[in-house]
Write a structure and sequence with these properties.
The chain is globular, with a radius of gyration of 19 Å. Helix 1 runs antiparallel to helix 11, helix 5 runs antiparallel to helix 9 and helix 8 packs antiparallel against helix 14. It is an all-alpha fold and about 300 residues long. The chain is built from 14 helices and no strands. The two termini are about 20 Å apart.
């Protein structure tokens, strides 16, 4: 197994674990503004890469000619927007845990397509749903605005996970048909098209963008979000995905909630609810069962 690719995948999980921290350290900005900014910064970071790397330029040009690449890029841009909004509303570790559930959604998409899951996958799905229920139940209340905001944030996080699952499922189908765009090209197109669309949407939005509230520290946080938690891990994960088995990269991603919880406790002082740990163990255990079954099926 490629040791450098494995290291890149692990570092990617670590950096993605910082995403919610950067979002929460920013002043109160619209999620649209934050997402447009992080994608634009990521684009500015990768432009020199396009200039220096012939293979990256080739991947990007190929993606530009591939209609499916635009759909995939929009799905990723939508994920970034929904995940950013969720981080603004719900504890970081909770959002990160819900964002780790795409394999559960992929299982549902496969079932709709007529691909019946195995027993281990069904058992894993039941465990994951039970864990999600334990995590979400404390926040379900309509008595006042705060619990309702918590519930909306969780719904946004699950919707973001659903978009990721749709992206992965669609890309897998394209790979099976032998017509998938290069994953690095899709990532670069996401930064380019996503930032352009979101910047336009932010400009047309009726409310203030809030950029006048940024000070020197906030600008540094914004740069950290765009560079450390968007550009580097997205490209790093794309590179690792090309060199590592899919089950390895997917399993390493399960460490993101752990890193996010540690960072949120150390930096933001967030404390987990009593049900979060058992619920999180059920979710991650269930996802691991689904991934293991998929690996075993691929090896048969």
């Amino acid at each position: 197994m490629n040791r450098n690719a494995l290291l890149a995948a692990g570092l990617t999980s670590l950096m993605w674990g910082l995403t919610g921290i950067f979002v929460r350290l920013l002043p109160s900005l619209p999620a649209l503004t934050v997402t447009a900014g992080r994608l634009l910064i990521a684009l500015l970071v990768v432009v020199p890469v396009l200039g220096l790397s012939r293979s990256s330029r080739r991947s990007f040009r190929s993606a530009l000619r591939h209609p499916a690449a635009y759909v995939l890029a929009l799905l990723l841009a939508g994920y970034y927007l929904l995940a950013t909004a969720a981080f603004q509303m719900v504890p970081v570790a909770e959002v990160a845990l819900l964002l780790s559930t795409p394999p559960l959604f992929v299982l549902a998409l496969r079932r709709v397509r007529g691909d019946i899951p195995g027993r281990a996958e069904i058992a894993g799905a039941v465990l994951a749903v039970a864990g999600i229920t334990l995590v979400l139940v404390p926040g379900i209340s309509f008595a006042d605005a705060a619990p309702l905001r918590h519930l909306i944030g969780n719904a946004l996080a699950l919707s973001a996970a659903g978009l990721t699952a749709l992206y992965a499922y669609r890309y897998r189908i394209l790979v099976e048909r032998g017509c998938a765009p290069d994953i690095i090209g899709v990532s670069l197109l996401t930064f380019a098209a996503g930032s352009a669309i979101l910047v336009l949407m932010a400009g047309l939005a009726s409310g203030p963008a809030g950029l006048d509230t940024l000070d020197g520290t906030s600008v540094l946080v914004f740069l950290g979000l765009g560079v450390l938690s968007t550009a580097i891990p997205t490209i790093g994960f794309a590179l690792a995905s090309k060199r590592l088995p899919a089950v390895v990269t997917a399993t390493i991603s399960l460490f993101i909630p752990l890193f996010a919880g540690i960072f949120a406790f150390l930096i933001l002082g967030e404390r987990l609810s009593p049900l979060f740990i058992p619920g999180g163990m059920l979710v991650l255990g269930g996802i691991a069962m689904i991934l293991r079954q998929r690996r075993d099926s691929a090896n048969d």
